[in-house]
TrEMBL record:
Biased composition (Low complexity): 1-22
Superkingdom of the source species: Eukaryota
Region annotated Disordered, chain positions: 1-29
Protein name (Swiss-Prot/TrEMBL): AMMECR1 domain-containing protein
Stretches assigned to the AMMECR1 domain: 98-292
Native source species: Atta cephalotes (Leafcutter ant)
Gene that encodes the chain: 105627754
């Protein structure tokens, strides 16, 4: 016991001596800091408080996991505005990072178009309101038929429409009122595919070549031989599916829009071009029937 007690006392004594030594060191450091502070004040220098290593790592982790607070646009102090979520950019540790934009087109939109068409062909009450987004976008509905997916009808609008009403309207308009085709019949239903195209990112082209095959859809405005203003469009997939280059696509689009004369370089240069991109989803009648079965279950 005595040995243990002696050891304890010796430890306490050693600790007290160490404490006194550290206390003296702190006093000397404090005097140096006071001297530095006086010199800094004379120079006009401001020292930043030191941040413990643990606190620094926690601060970075919070920024990385939870994100920085949003800054008000146009705020005072020259603060940089926060980036909007819809521009495809995220902020991580203060550095803009690319982020995949939210997808609008969903398979449920195609199933809804089949619902609308099925009810129309079988003279049933219209389908109930769907669950997908009801944001407003320009849109097109395209019906194709058979294994080779031959065009059966395609009509849409460049005016932004709420998706529920827009798809309900153009599912039937493209099926029954495309002047290039006879109305779709009940017998054709099992062989159909439907594609829903949501149009986005509209930009004025600098000229008739200011677009990229396979990336952009194009809409042109021009005057026909009689001086009447006409418009026509091809969705982004058309030129690539047909194997056309830019000039072949423009010439075909002029003829589609009703231009009957010879297409010359001057005619091409005179037109106004708008380019856009689209999100497209395609479902078959078999996909639709599987969806209906799962929905009932």
């Amino acid at each position: 016991m005595a040995g243990n007690e002696t050891a304890v006392h010796a430890t306490v004594s050693s600790t007290s001596s160490g404490a006194r030594a550290r206390s003296g060191t702190r006093r000397r450091r404090r005097r140096r800091w006071i001297r530095y502070d006086e010199e800094d004040r004379r120079r006009g220098v401001r020292r930043r408080a030191a941040v413990p290593a643990g606190g620094l790592s926690k601060r970075n982790m919070a920024a990385g996991c939870c994100g920085a607070k949003k800054q008000r646009l146009g705020g005072g102090g020259g603060a940089a505005p926060s980036l909007s979520p819809c521009d495809g950019t995220a902020i991580r540790h203060g550095i803009p990072q690319s982020r995949k934009p939210a997808t609008i087109a969903q398979p449920e939109m195609g199933f809804f178009c089949f619902d609308v068409l099925y009810c129309q062909l079988h003279q049933l009450d219209p389908p109930k309101t769907p669950n997908f987004s009801n944001e407003a976008f320009p849109l097109f509905v395209t019906w194709t038929i058979g294994k080779d997916m031959r065009l059966r009808g395609c009509i849409g609008t460049f005016n932004a429409m709420h998706l529920h009403a827009g798809l309900r309207e153009y599912a039937t308009t493209s099926a029954f009122k495309d002047s290039r085709f006879n109305p779709i019949t009940r017998d054709e239903l099992p062989r159909l595919h439907v594609s829903v195209s949501i149009l986005r990112h509209f930009e004025d082209g600098l000229d008739y070549l200011d677009w990229e095959v396979g990336v952009h859809g194009i809409r042109i405005e021009f005057h026909n031989e009689k001086g009447n203003k006409r418009t026509a469009t091809y969705l982004p997939s058309v030129a690539m599916e047909q194997g056309w280059d830019q000039i072949q696509t423009i010439d075909s689009l002029l003829h589609k829009g009703g231009f009957k004369g010879l297409v010359t370089p001057d005619i091409r240069r005179s037109l106004k071009l708008t380019r856009y991109q689209s999100e497209e989803v395609t479902v078959s009648y078999q996909d639709y029937m599987t969806h209906c079965h799962n929905r009932r279950c």
